[in-house]
Specification:
- The relative contact order is 0.08.
- The chain is an alpha+beta fold.
- The chain has a two-stranded antiparallel sheet with strand order 1-2. Strands 3-4 form a two-stranded antiparallel sheet.
- Helix 2 (21-28) packs across helix 3.
- Helix content is 32%, strand content 10%.
Length: 139
């Protein structure tokens, strides 16, 4: 959808004032993709637009100072509850706390479980990998 210069200036002004792209899309009766596309093209054209989650940024990309999200600043306990687990942490249940809550491993991983617990939970049948092995027919 082609936006007029007036609409584009309004989008940039309101976005820089702190409104989200979703709020702009709803208030201007446009799709979220139209808003995000307009902001993307404006950034590429060199128009200064705030960057979400960054305190200072130059459009040329020379200097960017990232702001650490508040959720990451908090220290998580060694064995957190399910509510304290973040993305990329092992979800293998280890034990119960004194408050009768389930505690988890929370080791860094790219899967649901860390390597140690993944090996414990996902055991493969070594017979199926042998050359010439035919599985018995089961009903």
């Amino acid at each position: 959808m082609a936006l007029s210069d007036v609409q584009l200036k309004k989008i940039i002004k309101l976005y820089n004032e702190g409104q989200s792209a979703r709020q702009l899309a709803t208030s201007m009766r446009l799709t979220l993709g139209t808003i995000n596309g307009a902001l993307y093209r404006a950034r590429k054209a060199g128009i200064e637009i705030r960057v979400k989650g960054v305190t200072k940024a130059k459009v040329s990309g020379v200097k960017v100072e990232a702001k650490i999200p508040e959720a990451r600043m908090e220290q998580t306990p060694k064995e957190p509850t399910i509510y304290n687990l973040g993305p990329g942490q092992c979800r293998y249940p280890t034990k119960m706390s004194e408050d009768n809550e389930q505690l988890f491993c929370a080791a860094d991983t790219i899967r649901t479980y860390c390597d140690k617990h993944h090996k414990m939970c996902h055991v493969t049948d070594s017979r199926s990998f042998k050359v010439g092995y035919i599985r018995p027919f089961s009903r």
